[in-house]
Hints:
This protein has about 90 residues and is mostly helical. It is built from four helices and two strands.
Amino acid sequence: MFRKEEIKKSLENPGGQELMNKYNGENAGLPFWLILTPKGEVLADSFDAKGENLGSPATPEEVTAFIAKIEKSSKLNKEEAQTIEKVFVKK
């Protein structure tokens, strides 16, 4: 029989913890996300202005911060960003 820790470990993304450590997310909790260029440069991360992990945005303030990061770091148009925003607002 598997122990809980072994089962949880098997669900982890290979190299995920190392990436979290590299980008100061080791204590951020999950989900922790990054938006990277093809060369691996960070365009945005899941930390808000207070240094707290947005994770999966839940409050209106978190969703606003998330959308601002997406708009700043991508080529999404306003309509596409609004579609993403609606998904999180429905939660």
